[in-house]
From TrEMBL:
Major subcellular site: cytoplasm
Protein name (database record): tRNA (guanine-N(1)-)-methyltransferase
Organism for this UniProt entry: Fischerella muscicola CCMEE 5323
UniProt GO BP: tRNA N1-guanine methylation
UniProt cross-references to HAMAP family, sorted A to Z: TrmD (MF_00605)
Gene name of this polypeptide: trmD
Length: 237
């Protein structure tokens, strides 16, 4: 997959792109990330990328010309999505990341800054995505989350595909508690069922824990899961 990130601060991506699973995925050419600075596409001597909003108001807006020029300089793959990271967009979640990882070969990600972008930039955009109901100084951090979340779903990034299937949100529930050695740490013991070797009982315990944890922490997710499964309260017991 190809990621094209339009950002005024390309250096801010150095750490995430050079470490961990993401760094390995890039070195294995599972994905490619290109950083494009719209300032390189300005035509005035001051390389100006922002200006005051028409009608007044506080702050500055990113101008449309450098963003259009930056995006239009890129190759166009057949399955392409042009994304604006925006607090007004669709909230990022696991089904969305899975959709992007499965259905697209190129993600062009525009990182806004200042008070946002000129509204006409939306003529370029096919989707707006938000990290959540809060405001950050720019779109770089949400873009990093998007890159990380999508790239780890690409075949070959994570060694064990089974580990992706059992994670929180993949099946509509939060993950179950997990333990490793030692079996007894400061008096906190690993549940006996996990030491039993009975895989059927372990699977039932894990599902019960998922349901209970989701009920306690994210009842909205549990409600959606029950509706999807056609479940009733009695099935939770």
């Amino acid at each position: 997959m190809r990621f094209d990130i339009v950002t005024l601060f390309p250096d801010s991506f150095a750490s995430i792109l050079n470490s961990g699973l993401i760094g390995k995925a890039l070195s294995k050419q599972i994905a490619q990330v290109n950083l494009i600075n719209p300032r390189d596409f300005t035509t005035d001597k001051h390389r100006k990328v922002d200006d005051e909003p028409y009608g007044g108001g506080v702050g500055m807006l990113m101008k449309p010309e450098p963003i259009f020029a930056a995006v239009e300089s890129l190759p166009v793959l057949p399955r392409r999505e042009v994304i604006l990271m925006s607090p007004q967009g669709q909230t990022m979640n696991q089904p969305l990341l899975r959709e992007l990882a499965t259905n697209y070969d190129q993600l062009v990600v525009i990182c806004g800054h200042y008070e946002g972008v000129d509204e006409r930039v939306l003529h370029l955009v096919t989707r707006e995505i938000s990290l959540g109901d809060f405001i950050l100084t720019g779109g770089e951090i949400p873009a990093m989350a998007l890159i990380n979340g999508v790239m780890r779903l690409l075949p070959g990034t994570v060694g064990k595909v089974e580990s992706l299937k059992s994670e929180s949100f993949e099946e509509g529930l939060l993950d179950y508690p997990q333990y490793t050695r030692p079996a007894n740490f400061r008096g906190w013991k690993v549940p006996d069922v996990l030491l039993s070797g009975n895989h059927n009982e372990i699977a039932k315990w894990r599902l019960q824990q998922q349901i209970q944890r989701t009920s306690d922490r994210r009842p909205d997710l549990l409600k959606a899961w029950l509706e999807e499964k056609g479940g009733k309260d009695g099935e939770m017991e």
